[in-house]
Amino acid sequence: MKTTGLHVGEPAPGVAKTDPIIVADHITRRFGGLTAVDVDHIEIPRGAITALIGPNGAGKTTLFNLLTGFDQPDSGKWTFDGSGISGIPAFKVARKGQVRTFQLTKALALLTVLDNMKLGAKGQRGESLFRALFPFIWRKQEAEIEERALVLLERFKLLEKKDDYAASLSGGQRKLLEMARALMSEPTLVMLDEPMAGVNPALTQSLLDHILGLKEQGMTVLFVEHDMHMVRHIADWVIVMAEGRIVAEGDPHEVMANPAVIDAYLGAHHDEDLGEIESETQSAIKELADDDADEVKH
Ligand SMILES: Nc1ncnc2c1ncn2[C@@H]1O[C@H](COP(=O)(O)OP(=O)(O)OP(=O)(O)O)[C@@H](O)[C@H]1O
């Protein structure tokens, strides 16, 4: 079920939201002479699924890294749930309830599925001092963490794999594990980085259902994705970036029909034959247009 009534006024870049969970101003991040992110104002609607899309190199991942404290901006301020979190390190951001998924790194792939889950809960209360002073309470907390991990693994159909190395999982199962691990810290905002990348079609629906499930449970979801089918099917709101800036925002269908978005994807090659210069994102836009045409026919 799509969530509507998210914005106030015309859906232009930076438009105000009725109930924003993130409000950010004047964020810039430069790498040498390159300005990777230059966002004047952005608001993420609470309780909805927002897609952040844009061509390769648009600055989506950099913006994700900034908002979650994994990178520091050259300028900018933002709030999460009403409290200022700009410049706060990632583990503190996560404690406040804003988590992001990570690609399963080599090191994590060499841990079991269950250990990966337990790591997702670390940085909450299990500090070493706490452990030393209150071993009894600490053990109780460990037991609670394991219990929560098992419940989540069951929900994500990974329980049978709990003692396997994460490296042995398929691409889709890894994505499920990344999402399940993020949920260990009981977040209010879940940020997913390309949740569909490397997922085979058999697991696509299950992943989509899990993401919709997060919203049903009251969480806010923000994801970066190149897969336009996914954007269209589950996003309530779409924000488009190009060259570090936000170039369009709105409902998925309206955004896809927006000339600024088509321009952002096609860039200087606008008038050329798409067949010759086709890239991942260009073919995605074409697929989407085909989908829309199919829908009109039916
Ligand atoms: N650590 C870094 N050092 C130097 N340049 C960087 C760094 N990280 C990102 N960039 C540059 O910043 C720009 C934005 O990159 P970013 O990865 O944020 O884009 P993106 O929209 O996530 O792209 P993609 O869809 O390909 O993942 C790119 O030109 C990239 O080369």
TrEMBL record:
InterPro entries: AAA+_ATPase, ABC_AA/LPS_Transport, ABC_transporter-like_ATP-bd, ABC_transporter-like_CS, BCA_ABC_TP_C, P-loop_NTPase. Keywords: ATP-binding, Nucleotide-binding, Transport. GO terms for molecular function: ATP binding; ATP hydrolysis activity. One of its GO terms (cellular component) is plasma membrane. Pfam families: ABC_tran, BCA_ABC_TP_C. Residues 22-268 form the ABC transporter domain. CDD domains: ABC_Mj1267_LivG_branched. This is ABC transporter ATP-binding protein. The lineage of its organism: Bacteria, Bacillati, Actinomycetota, Actinomycetes, Micrococcales.
